[in-house]
Every structure is written in C-alpha cells, then in structure tokens.
C-alpha cells in the first residue's frame, strides 16, 4: 500500500468519524431513542467534543489510543443502540451542523481536567509518603 493511499483512507475514515459524531449529537436529542442509548450516546459525544482527552496526546503511543480506538468503538456501539430510522433522519441534519463547526463541550473538558488534577494530587501524596 502506498503512502498516498494510506493517507487518503485515513482522511476518509476521519471524515466518517466526524460525520457520525454529529449524527449521534442529533440522535441524542430525538425522543424515539431509548434512555440507555441516550445515556451512552451522551457519554460518547461529550468525550468526542471535549477539548481534553482522558489520556493526553503528549503521552507517547497511549495518548492517541483513545482517539484511534475508544472514540470509534464508542461511536459504533452507540449507532447500534439507536433505531435505524432515527439514524437515517439525522444524517441529513448532521451535514449542516458539521459545516458550521464542532461545538465544544467545556463541561466534559472540565470533568477530565478534574480527573487529572485528582490523579496528580494522589501521585504527589504517594511520592511524599514514600520519600518521608
């Protein structure tokens, strides 16, 4: 496989993921979606829209695992939970939203920042106890 083909396929996959995020964003608001699917979809969309990752990208290899594995897996599972007719109705609307720009979910971002702050505090406490 040539590098150009790989890059083209990667770009197409990225476009598909972006489109599906917007479809899920719309589907979450639809009253025809069961509550458990809404809850899972809310988690997936919030995480995808969050400016903060659970695993920061600056951590080698692991930093990109959430973007490469967790987000697509969550999208796939959420799509399977939502009725097909809802998904079909939302695909057209998603294209319009995608063109306007991705909304940021600062609440989810604050949640992930809070988690990392707690992890850092915990790590400092452990190190402090070890070196006393």
What would your notes on this structure say?
The chain has one domain (3-130). Helices cover 79% and strands 0% of the residues. The protein contains 5 helices and no strands. The protein has helices at 3-29, 35-49, 62-81, 84-100, 106-130. Helix 1 crosses helix 2 (35-49), helix 1 packs across helix 3 (62-81) and helix 2 (35-49) packs antiparallel against helix 3 (62-81). The longest helix has 27 residues, at 3-29. It is globular and about 60 Å long. The model has no long low-confidence stretch (mean pLDDT 82).
In short:
With 132 residues, the chain is mainly α. 79% of the residues lie in helices and 0% in strands.
Low-confidence stretches: none
How many domains, in number, for the residues?
Answer: 1
Instruction: Please identify the structural class as seen in this structure.
Output: mainly alpha
Largest β-sheet summary: none
Q: Give Rg in angstroms.
A: 18 Å
| Number of E-state strands | 0
* Shape designation: globular
Helical stretch count?
A: 5
Taken in chain order, the helices and strands follow as HHHHH
**Fraction of residues in helices?**
over 70%
Q: Separation of termini?
A: 56 Å
Mean pLDDT: 82
Strand content range: under 5%
Oligomer: single chain
Which secondary structure elements does this structure contain, and how are they paired or packed?
Elements (H helix, E strand, L loop, with lengths): L2 H27 L5 H15 L12 H20 L2 H17 L5 H25 L2
Helix pairs in contact: 1-2, 1-3, 1-4, 2-3
């Amino acid at each position: 496989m040539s590098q150009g083909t790989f890059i083209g396929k990667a770009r197409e996959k990225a476009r598909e993921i972006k489109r599906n995020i917007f479809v899920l964003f719309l589907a979450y608001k639809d009253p025809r979606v069961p509550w458990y699917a809404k809850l899972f979809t809310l988690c997936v969309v919030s995480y995808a829209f969050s400016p903060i990752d659970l695993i920061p990208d600056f951590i080698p290899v692991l930093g990109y695992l959430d973007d490469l594995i967790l987000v697509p897996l969550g999208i796939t599972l959420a799509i399977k939970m939502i009725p097909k007719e809802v998904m079909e109705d939302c695909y057209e609307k998603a294209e319009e939203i995608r063109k306007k720009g991705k909304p940021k979910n600062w609440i989810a971002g604050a949640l992930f920042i809070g988690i990392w702050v707690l992890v850092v505090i915990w790590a400092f406490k452990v190190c402090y106890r070890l070196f006393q």
